[in-house]
Amino acid sequence: MAPLASRLSFTAILVLSTQACTPAPSPVVKKDLSVCTDRQLLVPKVEGKQVETHRNGQLPSINYPFGTAREDWGLSLTLRIDESGKVACYVAKDTFDRPQELNAKRLAALQSLADLRYQPFERNGKAVAVLIEEQVREEELPEKSIPLPDVPLEEVHISLERTGCYGTCPSYRVDIYGTGRVVYCGSRYVDVQGEHEFFVPKDEVRRLVASLRDKNLWSVRSEYNAPITDNPTYVLTLRMGKQSKTISDYVGEMVGMPATVSQFEDEVDKAARTDKWVHLTTESLSSLQAAGFPFDTQKGAELLARAVSSDETQDQAAMLELVKLGAPLIVTGEPEAGFMSAPGPLLESALRNHRDLLLTPLVDRGLLDTRGKRDQAKIDAAFKAAVEGGRLDAVKTIWGVAGTRPHPALSFDDDAGDPEKNAKRSAITLALRRPYGDDDWEGLAIARWLVEQGCDIKARAANGDTLLHIATEAGDVEFVRYLLDQGLDASTPGDYDLPALGSAQNEEIAMMLLRAGTDFKLMDDEGGQFLRYAKDNNWGEVVAWLEQHNQG
After folding, report:
1. Cβ contacts of residue 250 below 8 Å, gap of 6+?
2. What is the pLDDT of residues 87-124, one digit of tens each?
3. Which of 79, 92, 400, 441 has the fewest C-beta atoms lying within 10 Å of its C-beta?
4. What count of other Cβ atoms lies within 10 Å of the Cβ of residue 285?
């Protein structure tokens, strides 16, 4: 029998008759939920929201007594889900790809997964087996239950501070008082900075207090500090009359922090209307107007620049209204905190971030002009930004702007990411790049349109990449198919002398390139490393193809 850590067995129940002449019924045995074999892992992987939307039921959680010492908290699982939506097998490894110990509590949690069901996953209209990642949270119970101090609502003060990180994490603090008064103070990587005060209904504060009591947060530890770096810290400060408690959460789920702490943090944000300050909205704009915000100053210019350049701010109507309120369109001098670097030209930022409502007003306000005349260099830069933004309508809009030439240039200065080197002129199609998570990217439509305007579809960038490399990295199956149909060579070396296959993150695309004759031996040591890469990505079809072609 396999060791306990690699095999999860369910108890076989045998009901024995107590009457001598009555035969014993057959034993009821649940099928073992085993560790997945290498072959079982060679199926497509599904990630993100698809997993949540397909899951029917709740994941288990694991509780440990106060003071339990653990090197790792949380059971990280790779699950194979069969065609019917059942969990077929599992792999339990930590973030460093090390097998996780399966103690009795973890085994019990795994046992419960056998009864969990998922809506079957489909590929090309057919139910298929897939791999998914699930995280079973492990929490430390409080040492003892300490009741929340019972004080009048007016003596309640709840605050939440979220600090910065090595990146663009929003940094701010909100204070909510029992009177309904709320004070927001935005620091870095938020659209609205500075201190702003407003009121919410007292009943919302009363609900926060009830939630605080129900979640028993007065009993949890004061600090949950994971041994990692570069992440934000979240600090809850709870004042009930003269008594107070602070809970510091630094990636607390990694060290046994109860999920209720994170849930309450989110409840504080919701009650404090935090999102309307972190991301500019018409509501926050109205609040700023009522408070006499100086829209026509440098502060207004920076507010507009932050909102337009933010990946997460979506309220274009608020941005447009900000322009109408007189916010300057150019940030002068050194910007305040909240930018990774000095903000670029506003129109280019709007084009890259799909702010279609702003394009005509910004052009009409002269952002493509110098001293009252169209500036060809600005038009060309805006055209490149439109291509980078990945929306065909925006590309066509800027294409129609005439300067000293009827249309923008169909090439750009390409330095291959190294400003120290002399740039070469590359076809503007090679400025296409699909931003992470952009499901509406129109790379194929833009490429086809640009080819119609005269771009060379087989052009190569300064680093050697072709459109095939770009489409492959984008994971755009139809784009790759179109380019192969147009005769692009699947073996053309690009950056690091790798063919497009080197940036494949999609098995269907990898197979298209292999069938198109890409020389996979260009990848590494005669293709051996690529075989390992395919196995790590659970590409069963690719692995079978490589093995069939003597690459096993």
Report:
1. 224, 225, 226, 231, 233, 234
2. 999 999 988 889 999 999 999 999 899 889 999 999 88
3. 400
4. 23
Q: In a 10 Å sphere around its CB, with 0-12 CB exposed, 13-18 middle and 19+ buried, how is residue 550 labelled? A: exposed
CA–CA dist 94, 75 (Å, integer)? 8
Give the DSSP H or E segment for 477. helix 477-485
Phi–psi pair at 468, nearest 5 degrees: -65, -40
Residue 97 region by backbone torsions, left for phi larger than 0, else alpha for psi between -120 and 50, else beta: left
Q: Residue 279 in 3-state DSSP?
A: coil
- Residue 227, SS3? coil
140: phi > 0 → left, psi -120 to 50 → alpha, else beta; which? beta
149-187: pLDDT as tens digits: 999 999 999 999 999 999 899 999 999 999 999 999 999
Distance CA 161, CA 225 (A): 16
Going by C-beta distance under 8 Å and a sequence separation of 6 or more, which residues neighbour residue 153? Answer: 178, 202, 205, 206, 209
What Cα–Cα distance (Å) separates residue 231 from each residue in 74, 173, 279, 286, 340? 18, 17, 21, 33, 16
431's CB contacts (< 8 A; 6+ apart) are 384, 387, 388, 412
Nearest C-alpha neighbor of 329 from the set 289, 300, 369: 300
Q: Which two tokens stand for residue 368?
A: 């493509």
Cβ neighbors of 267 (< 8 A, separation 6 or more) are: 208, 211
Tokens of 95: 């973030």
pTM of this prediction? 0.86
